[in-house]
Amino acid sequence: MLDDFLFNVEYGVKHVLDINAYDHVLFLIVLTVPYVFKDWKRVLLLVSMFTLGHTLSLILAAYGIVNVNGVLIEFLISVTIFIVAVFNVFTAGKGPRKERVGILFFTALFFGLVHGLGFAKEFQMLLGDTDNKLILLLEFALGIELAQIIIVFVVLFFGYVFQTVFRFSKRDWVMVVSAIVVGLVIPMLLNSDFLA
């Protein structure tokens, strides 16, 4: 029982930190980069909304409620990363985002739904014929949340280092990181099978 729990949590962690599927990491980077350590509650809530959306789409897929076109979803995942990165570039240095928090939470939830659908087929293979789908889903979601917290901490830490040690302005930090992500996502969009 404990072995199954640890396996499922570890599987969730590896899903997020998979170097060959770095789209999840890119999304978390652009979601987190506008914030600093003192905003940790807001960031944690945003990331949790993303996890909730991700888990909801896996539940819908696991119980056969939705069936999606994988090629379209992979394209949409790249689009979500691009949108958030471009949003960061245009809003960098424009003050705190407290007034737009409702939109950000809804966006994180929606993007979580899209990203979860991208993993639905592989997750259904993991489920197999198990009777404990919901337990497995929750354990997997815990692994996703742990991995996301690690990434968020790393992004906030690098933001702190660059803004205090290297004297980057917050605006420059957000713009540079977001522009790098835009540069990484454009080839993903252009090479998508959806556009082929």
Structure notes:
The protein has 196 residues and is mostly helical. The chain has one domain (2-195). Helices cover 77% and strands 0% of the residues. The protein has 7 helices and no strands. It has helices at residues 2-17, 23-32, 40-62, 70-91, 101-127, 133-164, 170-190. Helix 3 (40-62) packs antiparallel against helix 6 (133-164). The protein is globular and about 55 Å long.
How many independent structural domains? Answer: 1
| Beta-strand content bin | under 5%
What's the pLDDT, averaged over the residues? 89
Query: What kind of assembly state do the chains in view correspond to?
Result: single chain
Number of helices: 7
Share of helix, binned: over 70%
User: Which structural category fits the helices and strands?
Assistant: mainly alpha
- The secondary-structure element order is HHHHHHH
Radius of gyration: 17 Å
Alpha carbon gap, first and last residue: 45 Å
Count every beta strand, where a strand is a DSSP E run of 2 or more residues: 0
Shape label:
globular
Major beta sheet summary? none
How are the elements arranged and paired?
Elements: H1 2-17, H2 23-32, H3 40-62, H4 70-91, H5 101-127, H6 133-164, H7 170-190
